[in-house]
Amino acid sequence: MITANRQAIQQLWNQGIQDAMEIHNRTNIPLSTIYDNLKKLKNSGTVQHIEGTLSTKLSSTGIDVSYRTIGRHLSNHGYHKKLPRASPMLTANHSIEWAKKHLNND
C-alpha cells in the first residue's frame, strides 16, 4: 500500500498536479503522507525511501568525511555530545531506610 501511495503521488506530480489538497481529494491518501512525499519529490526528484547512514550517503556522492570532522562541525554550530549523568544505584541499606520512612504513607 505504501508503494502504491508513493506511485500515485509521483504519477500525479508528473502530470502537473502538485497541490497537496488536490492530490488528497483525488486519492484519499492522508495529507501528512502527501506532504512528506512532496517534500521528497522537491528535494530529490523521487519518492523512494532513502536508506543508509550519513556516511553511506556521503560516500555514494564521492565525499569522504570522518566521524571526527562531522562532530567538529556540529560542535562549531552549537551541537554538543552529552551523556546523561550517572546516578548511583541504591544499596540494600538505602532501600530499607526508604521503606521505613514511607511505611505509614498508605
Give the secondary structure arrangement, pairings included.
Blueprint: H1 2-14, H2 20-27, H3 31-44, H4 54-60, H5 67-76, H6 92-101
General description of the model:
- This protein is mainly α.
- Among the domains are: 2-44; 51-80, no CATH class.
- 58% of the residues lie in helices and 0% in strands.
- The chain is built from 6 helices and no strands.
- The protein has helices spanning 2-14, 20-27, 31-44, 54-60, 67-76, 92-101.
- α1 (2-14) packs across α3 (31-44) and α2 (20-27) crosses α3.
- The radius of gyration is 26 Å and the shape is flat.
List keywords for this structure.
Transposase_Tc1-like, Tscrpt_reg_TrmB_N, 0% strand, 58% helix, 106 residues, WH-like_DNA-bd_sf, single chain, Transposase Tc1-like domain-containing protein, mainly alpha, DNA binding
Number of strands: 0
**Gap between N and C termini:** 53 Å
Estimate the global geometry from the Cα principal axes.
flat
Radius of gyration: 26 Å
Tell me the major beta sheet. none
Supply the number of helical segments: 6
Strand content: under 5%
Helix content: 55-70%
Query: What low-confidence regions span 5 or more consecutive residues with pLDDT below 50?
Result: none
Q: Structural class, please?
A: mainly alpha
Order of helices and strands: HHHHHH
Average pLDDT: 85
